[in-house]
Amino acid sequence: MAKINLERRAEIGAEKRARTRAQILAAANALFAKRPWDSVTVDDLVNEAGVAKGTFYVHFVDLHALTAAVADELIKTFDEMLQPQRLSIDDPLVRIAFGCNAFLERALDDPSWASLVARMARSHPAVGQIARRRLSEDLKLVLEAVPNPDLSLGLGLEAALGVVLQVLAAIGEGRLSSGDRQPAIRSVLRAIGVGKSQATSALAQLARITRAARPASFAAKTD
Questions:
Q1: From CA 160, how far away is CA 199, in angstroms rounded?
Q2: pLDDT in the model for residue 221
């Protein structure tokens, strides 16, 4: 009789469960990108994922638990996008431009992701907390360097995030393209009170940073 490798059998089972969970999360991402999350049913999800209804409940207690898992994945993705390269940039204004660029590049590469982020950030405040905190840290430094700034930190934060989320939604709906990326970043900088020449300088520094960090084939994206 062949010897049963219980450890390997357990590994195979864990791998299968992980694949199925990822399959359900991918289905949720696809549906949440198109519709409000609270309009999606378990039946919708299992049909999209191609799994049995009972399988859904093996992995998630209910739709709220699934939605929380989707939000957690987005939060992790945001910090991976922003750190650690953001910390290597000395100028806080350029860090803001870098953060905007990171989100817009990902959105342009995956419009469905752009729609998902725009929807989830509005319906689940925790989704945007990482990006909000990073932006707040940099914006505070930018405003401290300006004598008598025209806007408060809170207003600047809402203005910048409002522009980014609206642009993400528009990219997801196919209304904006790669040619709008740099003007969108400039719009964010202008929304927080940055002058035209200062915004141009920040974008030029961003272009140099991204060229240095990427292969030559990607350099055109930042110009």
A1: 14
A2: 47
